[in-house]
Design brief:
With about 325 residues, the chain is of the alpha+beta class. Helix 1 crosses helix 2. The structure holds pyrrole-2-carboxylate. Pyrrole-2-carboxylate binds next to helix 3 and helix 5.
């Protein structure tokens, strides 16, 4: 249980969505796979998760990442993502933010690298500036046009897809995908999430569908659509959501609406854009997402044993 009393972090944001990257002073999670180390993190060091991302140091929006020694030394690093509610299998914006943090620390340079995550190995290509391209894990749609009765709303129809996390993707709704509308969008999405759980609708591995994604048109030319993504801890993703865009690409490819290599430009609710495309290898849909991230703080987290909120405010 012993950890250093100072934890070194680099903060970044990817198209507006923050990632706090622990690169030194974090807990010893052993030498297993990233999935094994995630289990150790959850069981023994969850207080470090809450210390790093919850208030008063963090916020509901903050996503954390811990950079670890990879199992395969030919990979650049291992990484585990977490937020105010728990742990994420993969995180697209977080991968882009982590890559920029590693570049800032001099641990990687421009070029191609691989990162181990709890759901598989992802490749990243870092340019000389702020842009990172992520070759995400295989993505797939598992259910099409599923209807769920949502109390207070009525019938809502969407697709279930995996993009590194489980998503319910809704194209037909009466909501306006605008920043001024986020409280309404949050309420709508949260009700849908609860209704899906109550109806027993889940991923094909039994995983909870904990990300809800609504789509609408973009007002900008050259952009294919705009989204709103509600994350597991009830905060909305400020970026277009890397795993959510991957889930969308998997649906488009499955419907024959996106050919290999064609570019899909996905705008997020605050206006940032991810460029996405797919490769099809052995019938598998492999999404590629590209976006920009910037370092906005380099800091030491201080764990003062006299501080009553040293491990964050827990709900
Ligand atoms: O970019 O994949 C993503 C993501 C998941 C949750 C927040 N961002």
């Amino acid at each position: 249980m012993k950890t250093s009393s100072r934890i070194e972090v680099v903060d970044t944001h990817t198209e507006g969505e923050p990632t706090r990257v622990i690169h030194a002073g974090g807990p010893d999670l052993g030498s297993g796979s990233m999935a094994d180390r995630l289990a150790v993190f959850r069981e023994r060091y969850d207080h470090i998760r809450t210390a790093v991302v919850c208030e008063p140091r963090g916020s509901d929006v903050m996503v954390g990442a811990i950079v670890l020694e990879p199992v395969d030394r030919s990979n650049a690093a291992g990484v585990i993502f977490f937020n105010n509610a728990g742990y994420l299998g993969m995180c697209g914006h977080g991968t882009i933010g982590t890559a920029i943090a590693l570049k800032h620390l001099g641990r990687i340079g421009p070029g191609e690298h691989r990162l181990e995550t709890p759901v598989g190995v992802v490749s990243i290509t870092v340019d000389a500036g702020a842009r990172v391209t992520v070759d995400n894990v295989e993505s797939r749609r598992t259910l099409k046009n599923v209807s769920v009765n949502v109390p207070g709303i009525g019938g809502v129809t969407g697709d279930v897809a995996w993009g590194g996390n489980w998503f319910f993707l809704i194209h037909e709704h009466q909501e306006s995908i605008e920043l001024a509308n986020v409280e309404r969008l949050t309420d709508f999405s949260w009700r849908v999430r609860k209704a899906l759980a109550a109806a027993g609708i889940m991923g094909d591995d039994g995983g909870e569908i904990d990300h809800i994604e609504l789509f609408g048109p973009s007002r900008r030319s050259g952009i294919d659509g705009k989204n709103f993504v509600l994350c597991p801890g009830k905060a909305y993703d400020r970026s277009p959501c890397g795993t959510g865009t991957s889930a969308k690409l998997a649906c488009l490819a499955a419907d024959g609406k996106l050919g290999e290599g064609a570019i899909w430009r996905q705008e997020g609710i605050v206006g940032g854009v991810f460029e996405g495309s797919v490769r099809i290898v052995d019938g598998k849909i492999l999404p590629r997402i590209s976006g920009t991230a910037y370092v906005n703080a380099v800091a030491s987290i201080v764990l003062d044993p006299d501080d009553p909120f040293v491990y964050g405010i827990k709900a």
